[in-house]
Amino acid sequence: MTVNVLFLCTGNSCRSVLSEATFNHLAPEDLSAISAGSQPAGQLHPRAVALLHRKGISTEGYFSKSWDGLPVTPDIVVTVCSSAAGETCPAYLGPVVRTHWGVEDPSHVVGTEEEIETAFEETYAIIRARIEAFLALPLDELMRDKAKLKAALDPIGEITAQSH
Predict the structure, then answer these.
(1) Which of 81, 126, 139, 153 is labelled catalytic?
(2) Annotation marks residue 9 as catalytic
(3) Percent of the chain residues past pLDDT 90, beyond the cut
(4) pTM of the predicted model over 0.90
């Protein structure tokens, strides 16, 4: 059984792409992630791509895309917009398990080169910690009970890089 996870945000250029690429890099073959945006930026953020390359994660085939033409129907939708920043997450409609793992958008950080780079590294660390927690779940069991799956997924959105 393949489980398809959709990482969703507004622009699909940074956080959702970091999530998609990191998930696919770490996940076993029966788990697959895609990412999309409600208003795709049309290109991947260059710093996100550079960061993934530094981590040894391929970005081949990834691009900023709309949720309108997804190649698969997701089983799980993870929104990564930050409600703390006043962003409104797009609401994916359909019979899927939805969870929110909000994380600040590092592409909005203004500061020195070092401060911006640090923001990207912190965002990646949070995303990676959350994905590792997701991959540690007993998914075969949880996929049979949507309520239990949601109950297991929601607390993952509270994980920070430090708490992992």
Answers:
(1) 81
(2) yes
(3) 76
(4) yes
